Amino acid sequence: MVPASYEIRIKGRLGKPVLASFGDFSASVKAPETILSGAIPDQHSLHLLLERIGSLGLELLEVRQLHDSSDT
């Protein structure tokens, strides 16, 4: 299975310690939200990531799977 790229939008600006807990994801801030981008290998990993966001008390705004332009 090929990992899929995702963009995850979280309300507010996340601090460095919280961002560090998301490891391989890149982060950018576009007020008033933080955007995490990265590859997720499978649905189980996506669910674990979403659980981690919830356990940190973060407000999830959007999860979007990004499609590779070569897929079309």
Salient structural properties:
single chain, Alpha-Beta Plaits, alpha+beta, 4 strands
Give structural notes:
The protein has helices at 16-20, 43-55, and strands at residues 4-11, 26-30, 33-40, 60-66. It is built from two helices and four strands, in the order E-H-E-E-H-E. The protein is an alpha+beta fold and 72 residues long. The mean pLDDT is 92.
Helix/strand order: EHEEHE
Query: Spatial order of the strands in the main sheet?
Result: 2-3-1-4
- End-to-end Cα distance, whole Å, is 18 Å
Secondary structure category? alpha+beta
CATH architecture: 2-Layer Sandwich
Shape: globular
Biggest β-sheet description: 4 strands, antiparallel
The oligomeric status of these chains comes to single chain
Radius of gyration: 12 Å
Structural topology:
Elements: E1 4-11, H1 16-20, E2 26-30, E3 33-40, H2 43-55, E4 60-66
Antiparallel strand pairs: 1-3, 1-4, 2-3
